[in-house]
Amino acid sequence: NRTGAQTLKVANYHHLTLSGTSAKTATGVTTVNGDLTVSGTATITTLITAIGGNVIVSGGTLTTGASVTVTGSTTVSSGSLVMGALFNYTTASLLVSGGTGFTTSTGALAVLGTTEVSGGTLSLAGATNNKTMTGLVTVDGGTMSGASALIVFLGGITQTSGSVSITGTATFDTNNQALNGTQSIATISVAASRQLTNNNDLTVSTALSGSGEFINAATGTLHYGGAAAPTVTTLTITAAGNTVDYNSDGAQTLKAVTYYHLTLSGATSAKTMTGVTTVTGNFSMSGSATATTPLT
Predict the structure, then answer these.
(1) Beta carbons within 10 angstroms of residue 204's beta carbon
(2) How far apart are alpha carbons 135 and 19 in whole angstroms?
(3) Are the CB atoms for 117 and 139 separated by under 8 Å?
(4) pLDDT tens-digit readout, 181-193
């Protein structure tokens, strides 16, 4: 807990707390049998590979300098936890509730249970290795963002406050899943034999793809901004009340399916509707979108 720089003794620790200020040097320390806690304004790059308890970051900055497996949970309530380049991070569950939050890198992230973001930012970055959230992801404050093209969800996402703003690619695999709340995910891929159901408000700005099925539930609104039509194998958008909004400011091609409510919006953009013959509910246009409709 020294206010200046410190060097840790090389040993196996049970509970290890790093507090105070300045940098802590932990060369040779590879195992913590209990909890690892970082607080104050301490900074450390660890070579720890096994943590038998929990990781608790309530201040300062913890950067991983090796691949690490956390038997318990990971909590960031203040300060920041940063994955070092090419190092993997595995934890039973993840809670980001404040501070700068948790930032991934080029290594793999595996959250084996639930993930919650109630403050701060969970930033899913890194161009290599999957960032996998096995359980339900709940965003009830703060931000879940990510530019990685290798984000994988296995348990769905529920947003009640805060924001979900993923600019990369999210793949929904292994289980049928649901999206609840307001979310923005640039590219979505639904794995084969799986269903992804949008129950509320979803913006897909680039592509909706995969060999599975995307379902817009009766309460769902899909805002789609890709230039090409969605290529997901099965697009189910027939539930009474659901809306699909093609909202790009550029030209767009619609998928040739039956729609319930269909909206064409965006600025000075032509919509190609070849093969679209039936809208069961309302057909509306807004902005300065243009289209020649084959609707019958």
Answers:
(1) 23
(2) 32
(3) yes
(4) 999 999 999 999 9
Backbone Cα Rg of the chain: 23
Three-class DSSP labels, the chain: CCCCCEECCCCCECCEEECCCCEEECCCCCEECCCEEECCCCEEEECCCEECCCEEEEEEEEEECCCEEEEEEEEEEEEEEECCCCCCEEEEEEEEEEEEEEECCCCCEEECCCEEEEEEEEECCCCCCCEEECCCEEEEEEEEEECCCCEEECCCEEEEEEEEEEEEEEEECCCCEEEECEEEEEEEEECCCCEEEECCEEEECCEEEECCEEEECCCCEEEECCCCCCCCCEEECCCCCCEEEECCCCCEECCCCCECEEEECCCCCEEECCCCCCECCCEEECCCCEECCCCC
| 115-130 residue pLDDT tens | 999 999 999 999 999 9
CA distance 143 to 292: 40
Distance CA 48, CA 30 (A): 4
CA separation (Å) from 33 to 30, 36, 43, 70, 123? 10, 9, 21, 10, 28
Task: Output phi, psi for 158, to 5 deg.
Answer: -125, 125
What token pair was written down for 229? Answer: 């039509």
| Distance spanning both ends of the chain, measured CA to CA | 74
Which pair of structure tokens corresponds to residue 277?
A: 């013959």
| Identity of the residue numbered 11 | A
Q: Are 219 and 199 within 8 A, CB to CB?
A: yes
Name the pTM for this structure.
0.95
